[in-house]
Design brief:
The protein is mainly α. About 75% of the residues lie in helices and about 0% in strands.
């Protein structure tokens, strides 16, 4: 067997510390990848736990940002907000029923308004604006279910209700703009004309029967403008027959 080449042996001796260091780094990378996978599994379990309990709307921003990367984030958050809105409205009814005197409309308005930031977050998600649109209408409907004659006849309560609807309209304007900005991405396309008629009908009832003078006025103006402009440019409007 020939003797090792002195130059080759010297080269191998020289690079051995580097090879050993490379092997150590490879092992560290494998350990780090295992730790990362464990953290990702734990995050997925945490997100599943949150979704199972309907808590998506209440998580801190740092967690919601990660959860919002899910393609189904808008649908999930919409479901949770709808459920939370129903529970909150039922709790308000139970509270009112347990009292002798009616609660001020401002109490209902302030409580229901706490849902608006979450609805705004929903509208910022892909496919979220159409869900936010319906939730804002439902939120207004929940407000209409409180107060009775006392809540409508009182000047203070009527003013609280008007302020509440002004806040809803402010949010709805942004939602409408976002829906229009999506173009024809919605499937089926948004039937704006139908929703204009729906809001006009509800607004007419509230005005004639309950004295509410403004029901999504700015949002309706924006929607009517788009209907008048037609669908020649963007194909956004699904016209009603």
């Amino acid at each position: 067997m020939p003797a090792p080449d002195p130059l080759q042996r010297a080269f191998n001796d020289a690079i051995r510390p580097y090879l050993d260091q490379i092997e150590i780094l490879k092992n560290q990378i494998e350990d780090s990848n295992g730790q990362i996978q464990q953290l990702e599994d734990e995050r997925a379990d945490m997100h599943a736990w949150i979704d199972k309990r309907g808590l998506r709307a209440d998580v801190p921003p740092s967690i919601s940002r990660a959860m919002n990367s899910d393609p189904m984030a808008a649908q999930t958050l919409n479901h949770h907000l709808d459920r939370k809105m129903t529970i909150l409205n039922s709790d308000l009814h139970r509270l009112q029923d347990s009292l002798v005197s009616p609660l001020p409309t401002a109490t209902f308005a302030n409580t229901l308004t706490t849902l608006i930031p979450s609805i705004e977050n929903l509208s910022a998600l892909p496919h979220g604006p159409q869900f936010a649109f319906e939730l804002l209408i439902k939120l207004g409907g929940n407000m209409n279910s409180h107060g009775g004659e006392e809540g409508w006849n009182s000047e203070v309560d009527s003013r609280s209700r008007a302020d509440f609807y002004a806040r809803l309209d402010e949010c709805m304007v942004d939602v409408v703009r976002q829906r229009l900005g999506q173009g024809s991405d919605e499937d089926p396309p948004w039937d704006i004309k139908r929703d204009v008629k729906r809001l006009e009908k509800t607004g007419g009832f509230l005005r004639s029967q309950l004295g509410l003078q403004a029901y999504f006025p700015r949002s309706l103006d924006l929607m009517r403008y788009d209907v008048k402009r037609g669908d020649g440019q963007s194909g956004r409007v699904q016209r009603s027959p």
